Protein 1
Amino acid sequence: MQTLILTIHILLAIGITVLVLMQRSDGGALGSLGGGQGASALFTGRQAGNMLTRLTSYFFIGFICTSLALVIMAKNAPDNTDPAAQAAATPITSNMPTPATQSQTPVAPTQPAGE
């Protein structure tokens, strides 16, 4: 689920970038791309600007919603730990053999049999 929302989030970000770049800074969106070339055009310059502005707003609202959803999912994820904290909590193991433990009961020294 998180991968799906992240994919949508990335597509929305790319869409917002494209939509913003298509708009003209003086409000005549798509004017340089032939959007406002007289009565035979599909949109007049003003209608195209309104459409792009509205579409950019919808993409931005979707972007904010997916951002919030990703933050909530990351917060509620059980395995969301800091790698440094996780490394500190993990015991360090080595491949060296552990020394043999000595018994707690004292052992009397043995004397050679011939003496």
Note: The chain is about 50% helix and 0% strand.
Protein 2
Amino acid sequence: MKRYLFLVLVLISSVSFCQKKIYSEENLSITKWIDGTLLSPNSSNKSSLAIIIAGSGPTNRDGNQNFLKNNSLKKLAESLSNNGISTFRYDKRIVKQIREGKVDNDIMFDDFVSDASAVIDYFKEKGTYSKIYVIGHGQGSLVGMLASKDKADGFISLAGASNNIGDVLVEQVTKMAPKLGKEAQKVVNKLKAGEATTDYPETLASLFGPDIQAFMMNWMQFNPKELIKELDMPILIVNGTKDLQVSESESKLLKEANEKANLIIIENMNHVLFEIKGDDLENSKSYNESFRTISPQLITSITDFINS
């Protein structure tokens, strides 16, 4: 009986140990529109903080949208915090606006930059972190470049474009429908010049409709290749060979723009940070497959960079 009781106690102890979190979790409101989650390693040592900025669309702190759940940014945050790095990830302001039914149709790209800047300021004022790094994913890479300048201790671009968003859209449209490429270029030329237009095919309305032209004009003011040159801090640029949205050539152009930056290309990693062994269909489906594991090489690379 005593031996049986001893085995039970050992089993309970083992289960408790396996389930023990090595980080604490706290939900924070930074501004009126910015809510996020802070993960802090259970260590007495002063850690670095990684602020994670989501990509385009109404993307929440976990990397998900309404009909796409992959938890990529949640997995990124938890993996880094398991490695002793504090993380803060937050919902884009449009997420809270949609949730509360108070969508601001006048939202600008600059608002995303202001939000990221406010998050950096919030944690800098606390003074509880040894260093603050910014991780920008997709569109968040450009947002992070703008917000990090003269504020952060380091910057990490995940699947970030190197070219102006107008040029990126023209290239994408041309690949899908070559005949529409010239029409897209005409629209982009006008928007870059700050001119609204209604002269475009209906098939391009989702990209250049009247409701989003002001936002696109604002976004098109920025050139990532030029901005990354201005960052005087450690930089890590990461992309995957199976990214359907941002090719690895984009990351190489960012590296050329700032020769001091570190560049890592991860074999088979896609845009949502999963490693894909199959074809484009498997790749696309993974955007809504939260059971997948985030790239181990990505976590190791970021951890090593922050700790170096």
Note: Residues 165-221 form one domain.
Protein 3
Amino acid sequence: MPKKTKTVFVCQECGYESPKWMGQCICGAWGSFVEEKVDLEPENDPRSRAGLGGTSAGAGRASRPSVLKSVGSADYERIPTGIGELDRVLGGGLVKGSLVLISGEPGIGKSTLIVQAASHIAKTQGKVLYVSGEESEEQIKMRADRVCGDLGEDLFVMSETNMETIENAVDDMKPEFLIIDSIQTMYTSELDSAPGSVSQVRACGNILMKYGKTRNIPVFIVAHVTKSGDLAGPKIVEHLVDCVLNFTGERDHDIRILRAFKNRFGTTSEIGAFQMMESGLVEISDISASFLENTDEQAEGSVITAVYEGSRPVLLEIQALTSTSGVGFARRTAVGIDNQRLSMILAVLEKKMGMRFIDQDVYVNVVGGLRPDSTSVDLGVALAVYSAMRGIVPPRRMIAVGEVGLTGDLRSCQNADRIASEAARLGYEEMIMPLRNARKISKECGGIKITGVKNIYEAVNAFKE
């Protein structure tokens, strides 16, 4: 008996389904809808959460409301990956039954990191299955030999893109860890669309979720990114998984940063730092020292600032350069800093400090490729631009943190005391911070001088003295 189907229109940007074609999607995209035929869901649909087998709480019965007070709390068991920085970002290790999505630009080191983790888990936990839809088994073996050295007997590799074939292999092997590289190359025979399409990515994501939840094994999924660095494919994949990791770094730098954008079993404020070597990715335990390795000599336009990421402070260098603009409008270029934030800081310097940038090109760069999200770097950016514009070299090794408001006042930042302790450990002599933070810290914190300032004017004076 033929399957009953219906026609829907799916947005290729966000995955939204509509019974009719729309010119503009609810996500704002124009002309993004494509026509697809989907099967009507039968009764007792196995894709339903209530229809999942195995260890699922809803296995074998229809969904019924439960009293929240009577629901038992899950004690999540974590599997160490053997990579401390990866475990830090995950929240302490891989959780059994979880889905982890990792994305990043081609060649950034995603597969290298995963192979290193897979090799350790295979040696300590049991069988690991690495499924690749992009590389041959020989290519994976060459990478594993280079970055892992001695390989155990429980690390298996499979070059396949069909989800039904992969499911049979999982049922036969019963691995402790499953890796899919990448989700855009996988397809299921139940759909006629090409691999990488919205419907295929969504269907394969649902199948992998069923694998992990019913078999109680962690699943690692690799995904591509767009030219802008955003995760490629429909947003439904991000909603399905438990953790979304992003691997970033500059190609001309060997430092790689791993950050969690979503984590159901931990915080999203932690970052992991790695250094790309010939033998693979090496963890960086002292990330601040790595970013500040060339800051022994003071230079104009260079200011040290800091952000607090998860459970540790990270010191970084802000570099600024100003030059007389040629014809046309003056340029504002920022690498690692939001352009709109830079424009706001320049406006405050013009209004409160009497500086003129209308005929000046301004360039700001965060050394090392880190992209700080915190506003605590505002003061560092402002002082770096001031130093470059006036040709002033700071008289001593100092660090500046604080959020710059539109009135020119400085707002307090979080964990300033821990940032001060880290700056003192690295040998800095003075720390400029908002007055509210300074009142809570001793004037001599671990040997570093604490200078509290109310506004950008006082901060500039403290920077010059």
Note: Residues 123 and 152 are 6 Å apart (CA to CA).
Protein 4
Amino acid sequence: MNSISVNQFRDKLKTYIEQTISEHKPIKVTRRAGEDFIVMSAEDWEKEQETLHVLQSSDLMKQIAESMKTHQRNLGHQPTQEQLNEITGF
């Protein structure tokens, strides 16, 4: 993660915002007299929130673990070619 001073961030605000959105990389902004903060795109923040929700849900984590076991044993659902085409839009 890139780290810049609040002065650098303020001077090139538009550039840093465009960079954060296009590269999907948050930027840490440091301040001398106060706490640092992170700048990230709304899309990336929403994805982080979804990930946190899944990780904090024991039921969802159990489902994922069971799915991984099934996948590793090659016992999961095998879609037909027609189903694959429907999913991929071909």
Note: Helices lie at 6-11, 13-23, 42-56, 58-72, 81-88.
